[in-house]
Design goal:
Strand 1 and strand 2 form a beta hairpin. About 25% of the residues are buried. This protein has 5 domains: about 100 residues, S-adenosyl-L-methionine-dependent methyltransferases (Single Sheet), CATH 2.20.130.20; about 100 residues, Immunoglobulin-like, CATH 2.60.40; about 80 residues, Immunoglobulins (Immunoglobulin-like), CATH 2.60.40; about 90 residues, Immunoglobulins (Immunoglobulin-like); about 70 residues, no CATH class. The protein is elongated and about 145 Å long. The chain is mainly beta and about 475 residues long. It has a 5-stranded mixed β-sheet, with no helix packed on it. The protein has a 4-stranded antiparallel β-sheet with strand order 1-2-6-5, with no helix packed on it. Helix 2 packs antiparallel against helix 3, helix 2 runs antiparallel to helix 5 and helix 4 runs antiparallel to helix 5.
Length: about 475
């Protein structure tokens, strides 16, 4: 042994194959239903199989020793769709109560196998029960029974009947005689007269005169006086009618209350349901319902259906007039602006109750004071100014359906010595020219008299005119001269 040293193993000449996975055989577990079957009753044995692996099992088969019920020592169980194996068998009626032990085995196509013991306890035969009514027609609580119906009675075992063993009483037609046929387990009572329409009838049996035919007594008679009640069908139902309460109209993005009025020839209550999306399904219950109108203009069709107590229906259609709602916005315009400089108009916070209109987008048009321009996608506009005065401005927002909302505002265009100097500096390409002109404006602003001020402003205009093509264009000089007259 080497201590403190690393040992490396190098494989030469090939790859060592991975170890094969372990092979397993199939196995099984056993269950009975019921867990303690009675003598003389049916029972089911079920085997749940775990297939073998490496390779996976195929061709699984299960056998069990069922010789204690008169079957073979290797009785085959039937495979089921769920992968289990099962077999139903009869426990002999003379079986002695007590435990039973057996063995079940499973095999596959690879000759692998597994087995397990099972344990089951046989219970004694159930004690004799008194005869009873197993079923009857009409059923208890049955409605719409035809007035000419017969009454069927099936007992839990063969019986003998004597005397007046049944009675039929109805709320309108009274007592009914009937001729019984059949037996000894199933009897049919054919009333001598039909029942009345829409009445309640009760069948009552006298258990004391209905006895079983076996010799395992007691008990041997039906307990008590079994009874049940049914209701015959009402007269033939007539269909209802319905009409919408319209006309209906609503703005897009809002909801309209739709209503309808129905009537039933029998005067019974009606249930209402609406098809609000014209798909043929009456999905919205109620006599009055709310209809949401997502987009307009549109004329969707809605339908209402009424159903009477007998299941008969009537339908009617109506058109909802959905109106387009013009979009809204906020016109943003300055209260005042300096002459010579442009001011901005904007329509902000656009809103339309129609999600479709909002998704499609809006178009905008602006009037800077001399008339509207064309609609476009821009929500802002730049408005040039060249003189003082009050501008009456406007803006329009329009949706995809042509709905338009107009907004109005006013902008006061003014000029001051400061703003005119700013305009000079924005126009002039020669800083010295701008400095000289702004100095002249400053002198005029501080002139002691009006005449001195007028003279200095005149000098400003002459100086501006002299700087054409020397830092100013002719148009710029003319605008500056005009605005100086507005000071």
């Amino acid at each position: 042994m080497l201590l403190g040293c690393a040992v490396a193993v190098v494989l030469v000449g090939g790859v060592v194959p991975a170890a094969a996975a372990d092979q397993t055989s199939p196995s099984l577990t056993i269950a009975f239903a019921p867990q303690e079957p009675q003598a003389g009753s049916l029972a089911t044995i079920t085997a749940t199989v775990t297939p073998g692996t490496n390779p996976d099992s195929t061709g699984l088969a299960v056998t069990c020793d069922l010789s204690w019920v008169g079957l073979g020592p290797s009785e085959s169980l039937v495979p089921g769709a769920d992968g289990t194996f099962a077999l139903q068998f009869l426990v002999p009626s003379d079986s002695v109560p007590g435990p039973r032990v057996g063995r079940c085995g499973v095999t596959d196509d690879d000759d692998r196998s597994g087995s397990t013991l099972y344990f089951v306890t046989v219970a004694g035969a159930a004690p004799d029960a008194a005869p009873s009514v197993a079923s009857h027609t009409p059923a208890a609580g049955a409605v719409d029974v035809p007035p000419g119906a017969n009454i069927g009675i099936t007992f839990s075992e063969p019986v003998d009947v004597t005397g007046s063993w049944f009675a039929i009483e109805c709320t309108s037609s009274g007592s009914h005689e009937a001729a019984p046929t059949g037996g000894p387990t199933a009897f049919l009572l054919d009333p001598a007269a039909d029942f009345s329409a829409g009445e309640s009838c009760t069948v009552t049996l006298d258990g004391s005169v209905i006895s079983d035919q076996d010799s395992n007594d007691p008990p041997n008679t039906v307990e008590g006086s079994p009874s049940w009640t049914f209701t015959t069908a009402s007269p033939v139902n007539q269909p209802p009618s319905v009409a919408p309460d319209g006309p209906f109209s609503v703005d897009e993005g809002s909801a309209a209350q739709l209503g309808a009025t129905g009537s039933d020839p029998e005067g019974a209550a009606l249930t209402y349901a609406w098809d609000l999306n014209d798909d043929g399904v009456f999905e919205t219950p109620g006599k009055t319902v709310s209809f949401a109108a997502p987009d307009g203009p549109a004329t969707p069709t809605v339908r209402v259906e009424v159903t009477d107590a007998g299941g008969l229906t009537a339908t009617a259609a109506a058109v909802v007039d959905v109106g387009n709602v013009p979009p809204t916005a906020t016109l943003e315009a300055p209260a005042s602006s300096s002459a010579g400089f442009p001011f901005a108009l904007a329509l902000t916070s656009p809103h339309d109750p129609s999600a479709a209109d909002t998704a499609a987008g809006f178009s905008y048009a602006f009037d800077c004071g001399s008339g509207y321009g064309a609609f476009g996608s821009a929500s802002t506009a730049s408005c040039p100014t060249s003189d003082v005065g009050t501008r009456f401005v406007r803006g329009k927002i329009r949706d995809k359906d042509g709905g338009v909302t107009e907004y109005r505002g006013t902008v006061r265009v003014t000029v001051t010595v400061t703003s005119l100097c700013d305009l000079v500096r924005s126009y002039s390409t020669d800083p010295k020219v701008a400095d000289d002109l702004c100095a002249k404006l400053a002198q005029a602003q501080s002139a002691p008299t009006a005449s001195a001020r007028a003279g200095l402003l005149g000098a400003f205009r002459n100086q501006a005119d002299a700087k054409v093509d020397k830092g100013l264009t002719a148009e710029q000089a003319a605008e500056l001269e005009l605005l100086s007259t507005r000071l």
